[in-house]
Design brief:
Strand 1, helix 1 and strand 2 form a beta-alpha-beta unit. Strands 2-1-3-4 form a four-stranded mixed β-sheet. It folds into two domains: 56 residues, Glutaredoxin; 54 residues, no CATH class. It has 115 residues and is α+β, with helices and mostly antiparallel strands. The protein contains four helices and four strands.
Length: 115
């Protein structure tokens, strides 16, 4: 089974989710998404797997949300996805991909459902 986590080591929920996966004996590919953000296609696929719209996956309380204009209600899906790829700090974390499914580790136990 291939498992990926879009991880931010400075985030406690992200660290807890990674630890939970490792405790389950899962081999995890760790992607530090702030250093290596997903591509537009990868993020579009993640949103589809999560059954979410881009704004639902955005961290709206980050200063960059307004600073980059992502708070503009007229932006369409492709513009919002491009904004998250260009400013990955706006992407909610952690995201785990496994078995053709995706889950957000908030709380960390959410990811167990897709293993």
């Amino acid at each position: 089974m291939s498992v990926k986590i879009y991880h931010n080591p400075r985030c406690s929920k992200s660290r807890q989710t990674l630890q939970l996966l490792e405790e389950q004996g899962v081999q995890v590919e760790v992607i530090e998404y702030l250093k290596t953000p997903p591509t537009v296609d990868e993020l579009d696929n993640i949103l589809t797997l999560l059954d979410m719209q881009p704004r639902e996956l955005m961290r709206k309380k980050e200063a960059e949300y307004k600073e980059t204009g992502m708070d503009n209600p007229d932006l369409d899906r492709s513009a919002l996805i491009a904004g998250m790829v260009n400013t990955p700090k706006l992407i909610e974390r952690p995201i785990v991909l496994a078995n053709g499914k995706a889950a957000i580790g908030r709380p960390p136990e959410n990811v167990l459902a897709i293993l």
